[in-house]
Write a structure and sequence with these properties.
Elements lengths: L2 H37 L9 H70 L5 H10 L18 H53 L2 H9 L7
Length: about 220
């Protein structure tokens, strides 16, 4: 065997021996880190870039999950509020239709009384009495009110409930949009943290450079 070949063979043996030693040291440090983390309840200062990135991913994932849960709850509240608003609107429209039907009845009474007065079958006093009962007077030629006497409170109450339900639905929808935007932003943060972790893992796994960085990092403090 030539001198050059023996020299190359010696270099290969030395490199292999160094790799074995470094692997042993790295394994020992990993065991020490795990033991100290268990001893201190996980409150060990982390110096390794991969561990820091992994911790960031864990925090970002938890925050994103909380935001997603809040967004789901806000969406459910908005859906319930919109349903309540729609029901209140339907009830208000129903009350308006009932009031309108009652108003048409009053109009028929007024028209019949006016025809009887024009035929001389009623006096002015009798006509006024009938029209006052129908929520107007004979001297007024305007169209009777859309909401007849006795229906004002029911119409106002149904409108009040509808307006309250509509305001609550608008607020719930705004909150749902805000929580959805927050959840989307935190989901982006989580994905960015995952990318940083992947990059740190690739950097740590590049040959002996990554092994040396993990082996001779700053000591783990108690």
């Amino acid at each position: 065997m030539s001198t050059i070949a023996m020299f190359v063979f010696s270099l290969v043996q030395a490199a292999l021996l160094l790799a074995v030693v470094l692997l042993g040291i790295a394994a020992r440090r990993q065991r020490e880190l795990a033991d100290r983390q268990a001893e201190h309840g996980g409150s060990v200062f982390i110096t390794d870039e991969v561990d820091v990135a992994a911790a960031d991913v864990e925090l970002a994932t938890a925050a994103a999950q909380r935001a997603l849960d809040e967004a789901d709850q806000a969406h459910d509240r908005a859906l319930w509020a919109s349903t309540t608003r729609d029901i209140a609107e339907l009830r208000h429209r129903q009350v308006l239709r009932q009031a309108e039907a009652a108003g048409r009845t009053h109009q028929l009474v007024q028209r019949a009384a006016l025809n009887a007065y024009q035929r001389g079958q009623l006096s002015v006093g009798e006509l006024n009495l009938i029209w006052r009962h129908a929520h107007t007077t004979a001297e007024s030629t305007q169209t009777p009110a859309a909401v007849p006497l006795g229906w004002e409170l029911r119409v106002l109450e149904s409108r009040r409930r509808y307006e309250q339900a509509a305001a609550a639905a608008a607020q719930a929808e705004e909150e749902a949009q805000q929580t959805a935007a927050t959840a989307a932003a935190l989901a982006d943060d989580m994905r960015a943290a995952e990318l940083r972790l992947s990059a740190a893992q690739r950097s740590a796994n590049i040959g002996l450079v990554g092994l040396l960085r993990a082996t001779w990092a700053d000591p783990v403090t108690r």
